[in-house]
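User: tokens in, sequence out, please.
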């Protein structure tokens, strides 16, 4: 729709109570007949909105509109305002800046004279900006020569010092909503729009030496002076731009890659989160020799550089449908249970992804006894693949033969990694050889616990520092759950007293002592006894006739799913070093795990609860699990229930 000739002022406001009255006053002095004022109150929690309403009440002749919304940042606020613009040109104004007298009339006339799509002027910072004296200089606008190079490589931009044609900002798609600050993304989109299609011509961009506005020299928590936010948004806006503009000359791309890689290194080094003996420094040095032009990998480098900054605001698009392949070796019950937190985490990070699970050695438990769980997490399971173990695999075609967005190798075997790396993908992740073969390298994923290490590896793909695991749906057993709760109301504790290997078993007599303590505390023992613990059933049943034995009394055929199902109904669990402990972890309840000779740090069950691990090695450095005293387990219970 053709806009009327005139100026639409767009003001974005977030907690500007100290400044907004002066900003609006300066705009009011620039208003002409064909103009309007659109104010976006971007979730202010101070008195900004009241001041705005009072100003407009005092000046009823102003053609104005207020948009109130939750805080989303300037980029999204501007795009919201664009829906209501009526005039041919737009003057952007931040909620703490003051416009020079009669400046918009000058900018408007110069844009008409030179047929400009975008006009920039000077921007001054002053500690006493309320009383700033603007010079009465006159400087005609002129054409900006090679604006794309200046903006793209130097991060040049601004906001309150620009005026733009409404048709131009609409054509480029407004501001990039995936970056918080708009100062760089908007001029970049205008200056480089012609690289979107070979048939497009560059927009006309002009400059003037006149001072357009003045801003306060210091504001606490100001976005533009947040270096982390600024450098992050510069980087992400550039990457997003390249993803949508395929005709940018190669030499510009290479220069930008170098700039971003070096920016990431310098930030990490400055903030002492890396060292000269790190992959970060390796990437920094490599950027002087060779540039691997992969925008997906570069974006992940930016994400992992700034994700831990406390004051940074980011937007993450998790709605894309990605094809992800995960390679595992053996996938027996214990192996699969260790990997379950990882795959659950991956599905939270990429909820719409298509995940393929490639089991290189033998059958996958996720395709059999754990299929009820895996079907909500994994789209396709390829087991018995017989790939990744032989040297000759390096010279064979690797199935599946398709391109993926992400391939994750969970193994740490170099030969396996080299084989899996043959699969075509945009991003390859592997912990093998200290992430040497991985596109995204990590100095922080080193973790002794296997399950936690895999979860940390998945977090390399997101801004998230951790995720809250969603409960796995097991809907087909609703009646069993209902019947169990009716039969056993009240507080319950899941107990796994057995193990397939004798040296992993704490004595049943000690479990009886612990159970007696639990009963004193009004907790019902719920014993999970697998096929190897059938001899325990008569002993425990005789001692605790009122206790629950769900695998013996509630189901016809014992399955790992049943352990998870009934454990969910318990307040916490106690387990030996066994697969049952990992099943309790999958039920998302706190666990007390008992370990003997096994490395407890490496194999302890993992979830997001406050779990407690008790190792016999803490008692006379013994590897005998039976050396763990009952008192230590009772103390752990008291810590959980307090």
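Assistant: Sequence out:
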């Amino acid at each position: 729709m053709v806009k009327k000739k005139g100026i639409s002022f767009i003001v974005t406001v977030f907690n500007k109570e100290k400044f907004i009255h002066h900003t609006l006053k300066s705009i009011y002095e620039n208003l002409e007949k064909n103009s309007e004022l659109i104010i976006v109150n971007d979730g202010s929690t101070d008195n900004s909105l009241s001041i705005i309403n009072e100003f407009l009440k005092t000046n009823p002749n102003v053609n104005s509109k207020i948009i109130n919304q939750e805080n989303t940042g300037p980029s999204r606020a501007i795009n919201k305002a664009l829906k209501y613009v009526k005039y041919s040109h737009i003057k952007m104004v931040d909620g703490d800046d003051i416009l020079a007298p009669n400046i918009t009339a000058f900018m408007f006339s110069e844009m008409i004279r030179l047929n400009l799509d975008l006009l920039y002027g000077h921007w001054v910072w002053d500690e006493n900006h309320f009383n700033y004296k603007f010079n009465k200089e006159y400087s005609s606008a002129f054409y900006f020569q090679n604006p794309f190079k200046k903006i793209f490589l130097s991060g040049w931009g601004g906001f309150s010092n620009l005026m733009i044609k409404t048709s131009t900002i609409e054509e480029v798609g407004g501001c990039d909503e995936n970056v918080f600050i708009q100062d760089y993304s908007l001029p970049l989109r205008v200056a480089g729009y012609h690289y979107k299609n070979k048939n497009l011509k560059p927009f006309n961009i002009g400059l003037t030496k006149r001072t357009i506005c003045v801003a306060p020299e210091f504001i606490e928590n100001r976005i533009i002076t947040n270096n982390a936010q600024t450098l992050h948004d510069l980087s992400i806006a550039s990457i997003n731009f390249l993803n949508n503009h395929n005709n940018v000359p190669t030499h510009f791309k290479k220069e930008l890659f170098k700039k971003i890689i070096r920016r990431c290194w310098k930030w990490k080094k400055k903030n002492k989160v890396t060292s000269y003996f790190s992959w970060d420094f390796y990437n920094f040095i490599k950027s002087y020799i060779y540039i691997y032009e992969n925008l997906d990998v570069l974006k992940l480098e930016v994400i992992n550089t700034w994700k831990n900054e406390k004051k940074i605001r980011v937007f993450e698009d998790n709605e894309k449908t990605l094809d992800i392949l995960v390679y595992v070796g053996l996938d027996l019950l214990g192996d699969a249970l260790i990997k379950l937190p990882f795959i659950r985490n991956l599905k939270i990070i990429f909820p719409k992804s298509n995940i393929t699970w490639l089991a290189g050695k033998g059958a996958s438990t996720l395709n059999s006894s754990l299929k009820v769980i895996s079907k909500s997490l994994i789209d396709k399971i390829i087991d018995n693949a017989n790939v990744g173990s032989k040297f000759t695999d390096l010279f064979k075609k690797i199935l599946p033969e398709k391109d993926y967005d992400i391939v994750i190798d969970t193994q740490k075997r170099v030969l396996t990694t080299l084989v899996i790396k043959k699969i075509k993908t945009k991003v390859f992740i592997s912990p093998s050889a200290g992430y040497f073969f991985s596109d995204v390298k990590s100095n922080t994923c080193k973790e002794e616990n296997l399950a936690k290490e895999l979860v940390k590896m998945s977090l390399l793909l997101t801004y998230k520092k951790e995720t809250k695991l969603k409960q796995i749906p097991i809907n087909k057993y609703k009646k069993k759950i209902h019947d169990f709760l009716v039969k056993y109301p009240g507080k319950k504790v899941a107990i796994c007293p057995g193990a397939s290997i004798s040296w992993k078993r704490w004595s049943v007599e000690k479990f009886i002592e612990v159970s007696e303590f639990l009963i004193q505390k009004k907790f019902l023992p719920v014993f999970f006894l697998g096929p190897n613990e059938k001899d325990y059933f008569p002993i425990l049943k005789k001692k605790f006739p009122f206790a629950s034995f769900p695998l013996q009394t509630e189901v016809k055929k014992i399955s790992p799913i049943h352990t998870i199902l009934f454990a969910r109904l318990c307040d916490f669990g106690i387990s030996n070093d066994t697969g049952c402990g990992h099943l309790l972890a999958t039920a998302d309840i706190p666990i007390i795990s008992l370990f003997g000779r096994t490395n407890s740090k490496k194999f302890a069950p993992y979830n997001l609860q406050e779990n407690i691990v008790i190792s016999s090695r803490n008692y006379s450095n013994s590897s005998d699990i039976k050396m763990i005293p009952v008192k230590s387990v009772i103390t752990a219970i008291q810590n959980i229930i307090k």
